Protein backbone atom coordinates (compact mmCIF):
# COMPACT_ATOMS: atom_id res chain seq x y z
CA UNK A 1 0.00 0.00 0.00
CA UNK A 2 1.46 3.31 -1.07
CA UNK A 3 1.40 6.26 1.30
CA UNK A 4 0.01 9.39 -0.35
CA UNK A 5 2.54 12.14 -1.02
CA UNK A 6 0.42 14.63 0.88
CA UNK A 7 1.09 12.52 3.99
CA UNK A 8 4.77 11.73 3.30
CA UNK A 9 5.93 15.30 2.70
CA UNK A 10 4.52 16.72 5.96
CA UNK A 11 6.09 13.83 7.88
CA UNK A 12 9.47 14.50 6.29
CA UNK A 13 9.20 18.19 7.12
CA UNK A 14 8.29 17.39 10.73
CA UNK A 15 11.24 15.00 11.06
CA UNK A 16 13.65 17.52 9.55
CA UNK A 17 12.43 20.31 11.82
CA UNK A 18 12.59 18.04 14.88
CA UNK A 19 16.14 17.01 13.99
CA UNK A 20 17.19 20.63 13.52
CA UNK A 21 15.63 21.61 16.83
CA UNK A 22 17.39 18.72 18.57
CA UNK A 23 20.72 19.72 17.03
CA UNK A 24 20.32 23.38 17.97
CA UNK A 25 19.24 22.44 21.50
CA UNK A 26 22.23 20.10 21.93
CA UNK A 27 24.67 22.75 20.69
CA UNK A 28 23.12 25.36 22.97
CA UNK A 29 23.30 23.05 26.00
CA UNK A 30 26.94 22.24 25.17
CA UNK A 31 27.73 25.96 25.01
CA UNK A 32 26.14 26.50 28.44
CA UNK A 33 28.07 23.54 29.88
CA UNK A 34 31.34 24.88 28.52
CA UNK A 35 30.65 28.36 29.90
CA UNK A 36 29.92 27.00 33.38
CA UNK A 37 32.99 24.75 33.23
CA UNK A 38 35.34 27.59 32.27
CA UNK A 39 33.83 29.93 34.87
CA UNK A 40 34.19 27.37 37.67
CA UNK A 41 37.78 26.56 36.66
CA UNK A 42 38.75 30.24 36.65
CA UNK A 43 37.03 30.89 39.98
CA UNK A 44 38.73 27.92 41.68
CA UNK A 45 42.10 28.29 39.91
CA UNK A 46 41.87 24.76 38.52
CA UNK A 47 44.44 23.46 36.06
CA UNK A 48 41.77 21.63 34.07
CA UNK A 49 38.11 22.44 33.57
CA UNK A 50 35.64 20.21 35.44
CA UNK A 51 33.22 18.13 33.45
CA UNK A 52 29.84 19.88 33.52
CA UNK A 53 26.50 18.29 32.67
CA UNK A 54 23.28 20.27 32.42
CA UNK A 55 20.23 18.04 32.63
CA UNK A 56 16.87 18.45 31.00
CA UNK A 57 16.04 17.14 27.54
CA UNK A 58 15.47 19.29 25.65
CA UNK A 59 17.44 21.95 27.52
CA UNK A 60 15.41 24.79 26.04
CA UNK A 61 12.28 23.54 27.78
CA UNK A 62 13.61 25.46 30.80
CA UNK A 63 12.53 28.63 28.99
CA UNK A 64 8.97 27.47 29.56
CA UNK A 65 9.22 25.52 32.82
CA UNK A 66 11.69 27.82 34.59
CA UNK A 67 13.41 24.72 35.96
CA UNK A 68 16.74 23.00 35.26
CA UNK A 69 16.51 19.48 36.73
CA UNK A 70 20.24 18.96 37.24
CA UNK A 71 23.65 20.59 36.95
CA UNK A 72 26.59 18.39 37.86
CA UNK A 73 30.34 18.95 37.99
CA UNK A 74 32.92 16.16 37.98
CA UNK A 75 36.64 16.46 38.61
CA UNK A 76 39.09 13.56 38.68
CA UNK A 77 42.43 13.46 40.49
CA UNK A 78 41.95 16.67 42.46
CA UNK A 79 45.04 17.37 44.58
CA UNK A 80 43.89 18.11 48.14
CA UNK A 81 46.58 19.19 50.62
CA UNK A 82 47.15 16.50 53.22
CA UNK A 83 45.11 13.93 51.30
CA UNK A 84 46.57 13.69 47.82
CA UNK A 85 44.48 12.88 44.77
CA UNK A 86 40.72 12.47 45.20
CA UNK A 87 37.73 12.45 42.87
CA UNK A 88 35.01 15.04 43.45
CA UNK A 89 31.45 15.50 42.22
CA UNK A 90 28.86 18.22 42.85
CA UNK A 91 25.17 18.14 41.92
CA UNK A 92 22.55 20.85 42.08
CA UNK A 93 18.99 19.66 41.48
CA UNK A 94 15.77 21.41 40.53
CA UNK A 95 17.11 24.91 40.00
CA UNK A 96 14.58 27.70 39.55
CA UNK A 97 15.92 29.86 36.73
CA UNK A 98 14.94 32.93 34.77
CA UNK A 99 14.79 33.15 31.00
CA UNK A 100 18.01 35.18 30.97
CA UNK A 101 19.80 32.54 33.06
CA UNK A 102 18.72 29.80 30.67
CA UNK A 103 20.01 31.71 27.66
CA UNK A 104 23.24 32.98 29.23
CA UNK A 105 24.22 29.96 31.34
CA UNK A 106 24.89 32.28 34.29
CA UNK A 107 23.02 30.29 36.94
CA UNK A 108 24.74 31.78 40.00
CA UNK A 109 22.09 32.73 42.54
CA UNK A 110 19.46 30.35 41.16
CA UNK A 111 17.61 28.64 44.04
CA UNK A 112 18.38 24.90 44.17
CA UNK A 113 16.27 22.31 45.94
CA UNK A 114 19.35 20.26 46.84
CA UNK A 115 23.12 20.61 46.47
CA UNK A 116 25.09 17.42 46.97
CA UNK A 117 28.87 17.19 47.12
CA UNK A 118 30.67 13.85 46.99
CA UNK A 119 34.35 13.05 47.41
CA UNK A 120 35.70 9.57 46.75
CA UNK A 121 38.95 7.83 47.64
CA UNK A 122 39.94 4.86 45.49
CA UNK A 123 42.51 2.23 46.41
CA UNK A 124 45.42 4.35 45.24
CA UNK A 125 44.31 7.44 47.20
CA UNK A 126 43.45 5.62 50.42
CA UNK A 127 46.50 3.39 50.06
CA UNK A 128 48.69 6.49 49.92
CA UNK A 129 47.23 7.66 53.23
CA UNK A 130 47.60 4.24 54.86
CA UNK A 131 51.07 3.58 53.48
CA UNK A 132 49.99 0.73 51.17
CA UNK A 133 50.83 0.87 47.48
CA UNK A 134 48.67 -2.13 46.58
CA UNK A 135 45.47 -1.41 48.50
CA UNK A 136 42.23 -2.83 47.12
CA UNK A 137 38.81 -1.65 48.33
CA UNK A 138 35.76 -3.86 47.86
CA UNK A 139 32.17 -4.21 48.96
CA UNK A 140 32.36 -7.39 51.05
CA UNK A 141 28.90 -8.48 49.92
CA UNK A 142 28.93 -7.42 46.25
CA UNK A 143 32.23 -7.18 44.36
CA UNK A 144 30.67 -6.04 41.08
CA UNK A 145 31.75 -2.56 39.82
CA UNK A 146 28.24 -1.22 40.36
CA UNK A 147 27.72 -2.94 43.70
CA UNK A 148 25.38 -1.37 46.21
CA UNK A 149 26.36 1.03 48.97
CA UNK A 150 27.58 -0.39 52.27
CA UNK A 151 29.06 1.03 55.46
CA UNK A 152 31.47 -1.90 55.66
CA UNK A 153 34.44 -2.48 53.37
CA UNK A 154 36.90 -5.25 52.69
CA UNK A 155 40.43 -3.88 52.41
CA UNK A 156 43.37 -5.89 51.10
CA UNK A 157 46.91 -4.57 50.96
CA UNK A 158 50.45 -4.85 52.26
CA UNK A 159 51.03 -2.50 55.23
CA UNK A 160 54.41 -0.97 55.90
CA UNK A 161 56.68 -3.50 57.60
CA UNK A 162 54.76 -6.48 56.19
CA UNK A 163 55.97 -8.93 53.54
CA UNK A 164 52.53 -10.38 52.87
CA UNK A 165 49.11 -8.98 52.09
CA UNK A 166 46.58 -8.47 54.84
CA UNK A 167 42.82 -8.67 54.28
CA UNK A 168 40.57 -6.91 56.77
CA UNK A 169 36.87 -6.19 57.14
CA UNK A 170 36.36 -2.64 58.43
CA UNK A 171 33.39 -0.52 59.40
CA UNK A 172 32.98 3.06 58.17
CA UNK A 173 31.54 5.48 60.73
CA UNK A 174 30.93 9.17 61.28
CA UNK A 175 31.11 10.65 64.77
CA UNK A 176 30.24 14.29 64.23
CA UNK A 177 32.82 15.61 61.76
CA UNK A 178 35.21 12.72 62.45
CA UNK A 179 35.39 9.71 60.14
CA UNK A 180 36.53 6.48 61.77
CA UNK A 181 37.62 3.34 59.95
CA UNK A 182 37.72 0.49 62.46
CA UNK A 183 38.63 -3.18 61.90
CA UNK A 184 35.83 -5.64 62.67
CA UNK A 185 37.14 -8.93 61.28
CA UNK A 186 40.62 -10.10 60.33
CA UNK A 187 40.27 -12.20 57.19
CA UNK A 188 43.91 -12.96 56.44
CA UNK A 189 47.23 -11.92 58.02
CA UNK A 190 50.65 -13.39 58.78
CA UNK A 191 50.67 -15.45 61.97
CA UNK A 192 51.65 -13.43 65.01
CA UNK A 193 51.01 -10.05 63.32
CA UNK A 194 47.29 -9.80 64.00
CA UNK A 195 47.45 -6.74 66.26
CA UNK A 196 49.85 -4.95 63.92
CA UNK A 197 47.46 -5.69 61.07
CA UNK A 198 44.49 -4.22 62.94
CA UNK A 199 46.49 -1.11 63.76
CA UNK A 200 47.45 -0.69 60.09
CA UNK A 201 43.78 -0.64 59.06
CA UNK A 202 42.64 1.76 61.78
CA UNK A 203 42.26 5.30 60.48
CA UNK A 204 40.65 8.59 61.46
CA UNK A 205 39.94 11.73 59.44
CA UNK A 206 38.43 15.12 60.19
CA UNK A 207 36.01 15.41 57.26
CA UNK A 208 36.28 19.20 57.32
CA UNK A 209 39.53 18.59 55.44
CA UNK A 210 37.64 17.07 52.52
CA UNK A 211 36.50 19.41 49.72
CA UNK A 212 32.86 19.17 50.80
CA UNK A 213 32.32 22.74 52.08
CA UNK A 214 30.93 21.12 55.24
CA UNK A 215 31.51 18.06 57.38
CA UNK A 216 30.51 14.75 55.81
CA UNK A 217 26.97 13.61 56.50
CA UNK A 218 27.27 10.12 55.00
CA UNK A 219 30.05 7.65 54.18
CA UNK A 220 29.85 4.39 52.24
CA UNK A 221 31.78 2.05 49.97
CA UNK A 222 30.71 1.43 46.38
CA UNK A 223 32.51 0.13 43.30
CA UNK A 224 36.00 0.02 44.79
CA UNK A 225 35.99 3.48 46.39
CA UNK A 226 34.99 5.06 49.69
CA UNK A 227 32.59 7.98 49.27
CA UNK A 228 31.97 10.94 51.57
CA UNK A 229 28.82 13.03 51.00
CA UNK A 230 27.45 16.34 52.25
CA UNK A 231 24.14 17.97 51.30
CA UNK A 232 22.30 21.23 51.81
CA UNK A 233 18.72 22.08 50.88
CA UNK A 234 16.93 25.11 49.48
CA UNK A 235 19.94 27.35 48.93
CA UNK A 236 21.02 29.62 46.06
CA UNK A 237 23.67 28.07 43.83
CA UNK A 238 27.14 29.60 44.07
CA UNK A 239 30.26 28.91 42.01
CA UNK A 240 31.84 27.39 45.12
CA UNK A 241 29.14 24.71 45.05
CA UNK A 242 30.44 23.43 41.71
CA UNK A 243 34.11 23.70 42.61
CA UNK A 244 35.86 20.40 43.46
CA UNK A 245 38.31 22.04 45.88
CA UNK A 246 35.98 23.85 48.28
CA UNK A 247 36.63 22.92 51.92
CA UNK A 248 36.05 24.24 55.42
CA UNK A 249 38.53 24.63 58.29
CA UNK A 250 38.05 22.22 61.20
CA UNK A 251 36.41 23.56 64.32
CA UNK A 252 38.55 23.79 67.43
CA UNK A 253 38.54 20.60 69.44
CA UNK A 254 37.60 18.37 66.51
CA UNK A 255 41.03 16.82 66.26
CA UNK A 256 43.12 16.38 63.13
CA UNK A 257 44.41 13.79 60.74
CA UNK A 258 46.45 10.98 62.14
CA UNK A 259 50.17 11.52 62.43
CA UNK A 260 50.73 9.36 59.37
CA UNK A 261 49.36 12.18 57.20
Strand order of the largest sheet: 1-2-3-4-11-10
Estimated share of beta-strand residues: 35-45%
| H and E order | HEHEEHEHEEEEHEEEH
The termini sit apart by 77 Å
In terms of per-residue confidence, which ranges show pLDDT below 50 for 5 or more consecutive residues? Answer: 249-261
Main pleated sheet: 6 strands, antiparallel
The outline comes out as elongated
Secondary structure class reads alpha+beta
Number of helices: 6
Mean pLDDT: 87
Tell me how many strands there are. 11
How many domains? The number is: 2
What kind of oligomer do you see?
Answer: single chain
What is the CA-based Rg, rounded? 24 Å
Fraction in helix: 25-40%
Core attributes:
DUF2993 domain-containing protein; six-stranded antiparallel β-sheet; 2 domains; about 260 residues; DUF2993; elongated; five-stranded antiparallel β-sheet
Amino acid sequence: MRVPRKVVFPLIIILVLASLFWLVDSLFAARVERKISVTVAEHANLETNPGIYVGGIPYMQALITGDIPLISADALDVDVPGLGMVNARSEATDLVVTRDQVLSGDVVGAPAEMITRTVSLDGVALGHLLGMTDLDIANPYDISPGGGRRTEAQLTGTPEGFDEEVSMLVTLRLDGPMFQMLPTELLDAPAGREEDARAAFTWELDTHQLPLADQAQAVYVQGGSIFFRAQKQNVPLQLEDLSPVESTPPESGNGSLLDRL
